[in-house]
Amino acid sequence: MAIRLGDPDVPQMDLFRSEQMCLVQLIIPAESAHETITNLGELGLLQFKDLNADKSPFQRTYANQVKRCGEMARKLRFFKDQMTKASISVAVRSAAQKDLELDELEVKLVELETELLEINSSSDKLLRSYSELVEFQLVLKKAGVFFSSARSTASAYQRELEDVSSSSRDIPMDIPLLLEQEMQTDPSKQTRLGFITGLIAKTKVAAFERILFRATRGNLFFKQALVEEPVLDPATNEKVEKLVFVVFFSGERARMKVMKICEAFGANKYPFPEEVGHQAQMIDEVSTRLAELKATIDAGSRHRDSMLSMISYQIEPWSLMVRKQKAVYHILNMLNIDVTRKCLVAEGWCPVSAKLQIQDALHQAAFDSNSQVATIFQVLHTKELPPTYFKTNKFTGAYQEIVDAYGIAKYQEANPGVFTIVTFPFLFAVMFGDWGHGICLLVAVLWLILNERKYGSQKLGDIMSMAFSGRYVILLMAIFSIYTGLIYNEFFSRSFPIFGSSAYHCSDATCSQSSRSGLIKTQSSPYWFGVDPAWHGSATELPFLNSMKMKMSILIGVAQMNLGIVLSYYNAKFFRNELNVWYQFVPQVIFLNALFGYLSLLIIVKWCTGARADLYHVMIYMFLSPTADLADNQLFWGQKYLQILLLLAALVAVPWMLLPKPLILRKRHLQKLQGRAYGILGGSDTDSVDLDHGNDGDHEEFQFGEVLVHQMIHTIEFVLGAVSNTASYLRLWALSLAHSELSSVFYDKVLLLALGYKNIAVTIVGFAVFASATIGVLLCMETLSAFLHALRLHWVEFQGKFYEGDGYKFQPFSFSSIAKEED
């Protein structure tokens, strides 16, 4: 297919200009509306307009259906949470299983949720009872040990008292004086102590004991025993380290205080029988009850797991169905409903090339729904700006995203994404030129490409996701880095005579270390490709490479800026805007090339002739003293007269950009007001003005002052930008120099220094440090730095010459995009 970039009547390449779009209207019978929208969602080539923008979501016709789908989506999220807690993964559904209708699915989900909630409720109650019985069992065992120990101690003490009373003649002096009073007291008059047993968290024991002591004024006895393993707390269902405690007190008031303090600290209280026989009986009963509860809980867990396993085979298709149906009802809510004719009216944008596919989908929907009336499809004519749609694939999509991050192209505006595929990785490589580092990048990105199916189905982190989505950008960045690295003749900062022998040799044996010795040319034919390896390590290496890279940066910058201006010409021709051709494109080309195009010519002539002219001096005195004699700075005959001519052309180009366009627009406006130019206003130039300003000229008041100020700003921006943008391209030289010097420092000061010690351990450490520095600094940080600088050169210096980027993206209703979304 022949491609004519400036002719709107000729089919364009897919990526250079966006697809031709049309506004269409659909009149859909009510009985086939759902099936129609579903088929269009499967096709994914129609962007619907909201015809009910003045209504809230709750006032729309299908609000209840959307609410139903939202409720079903909530149930499915609940099932997924339960599956995650049960460590059950989503399984692949068998192809033989039948799909449910939406109403059947709703009933099914309600039944499953009800059953699952009942199972969970029963399990929670059983688990709480089980945890309480476990704690009760611990209290019986720990407190039983304490009471048994206290009982044996009391028996021994009682026998000692009986021995003392029988031998009344010889009473030891160390027996307490109260012992005699206690022995003489009537047992019926002795105060009986009460006690409370339970469990409390280990972290609360100190405060719990302190509050008890203060509340009872020390009239208590507190005993505690540590539980060896954390126990499941009945209230929180979390494992907590706890202690079994026994609190002895005297009196009813003390008992009430202890009970309230236990409740405040969240201590679980359990009864404890005083009789030993009763204690053993209760321990047996609790153990039996625990075994029964354990069996019941396990059975419930197995039933729940089997139920969740069954759901796991269906949850993905169910979720997808619910998302699709919810999206369909959202679209139906955007349509106008004609009650009298029992139909729905839809409007939307679609590519012109997709009209037949859409009509086929509409006929299929009418057939599937047994509708007696087919959907009416008609194209509407409008002055509204259509959306922008580019057909991309996994290779071109990443480059288009780079452009879209700056701004979506206006409808059928020249797309810089076509040129970005080549220029972006090339500018990156100019700053990153080292074929050793390029090979490392290439190996890493080839691993991503070869495993793209694996990584494409996984959820990656932020950095890994960005690297994977831009894998084809990194691929070309690596290939171009190898290419520029071969030109620079740099492999981890080292040079190799790959393309033949060197054309130079050192003037003495120490020329690589000397600051005065240079290189002597030994053969007439130059080194075949790239920089001669003899320059690396010589005293003149840095001046030579700096001069070459700086001039090369200017040449690349001027070429890319000229490309941007040429694309502005194709935009003007495509939109039939002759004003922009004669009063924007032409003076911009003259101004830029009269100054920096001429500088590029001088650089090429100086390279070809080997002259020693000072180009700084030539460019400065071209403005300060254009008629002065050039002397040794003259590169060709007639250079002085050419410079005067170019300077005059640049001076003329400034008012050429500034004045004619506003004056012509003013003249046309006055002719329109006088009613003498309707035919002219109906032509192409008026349309071009409307496209420039983004409004309908018939309804917009013309303001000559605003137009003049706008054109003045545009002119000043271009004139100053021509200088600043050319200087901005020197970043190519600066970053290339920084990358080369960093690589050289890491090689000389780390790797060679470690090898000089001739020690295996030092060599291994030195190589590890060199590899870490190379990967961390040169392959990560320098890659990111060069990427960002190349991004700025494209967004500002290149796209600023022609790209408006004020359009909006074509976002069709498509089930394929819905399938990729997460709940």
Automatic annotation (TrEMBL):
GO terms for biological process: vacuolar acidification. It is a multi-pass membrane protein. Keywords: Coiled coil, Hydrogen ion transport, Ion transport, Membrane, Transmembrane, Transmembrane helix, Transport. It is found in: Membrane. Residues 95-122 form a coiled coil. GO terms for molecular function: ATPase binding; proton-transporting ATPase activity, rotational mechanism. InterPro entries: V-ATPase_116kDa_su, V-type_ATPase_116kDa_su_euka. The keyword Cell division does not apply. GO terms for cellular component: vacuolar proton-transporting V-type ATPase, V0 domain. The keyword Transmembrane helix applies. The chain crosses the membrane at residues 426-450, 471-488, 552-570, 582-605, 641-659, 760-781. It holds the Pfam family V_ATPase_I. Essential component of the vacuolar proton pump (V-ATPase), a multimeric enzyme that catalyzes the translocation of protons across the membranes. Required for assembly and activity of the V-ATPase. Belongs to the V-ATPase 116 kDa subunit family. This is V-type proton ATPase subunit a. It comes from Adiantum capillus-veneris (Maidenhair fern). The lineage of its organism: Eukaryota, Viridiplantae, Streptophyta, Embryophyta, Tracheophyta.
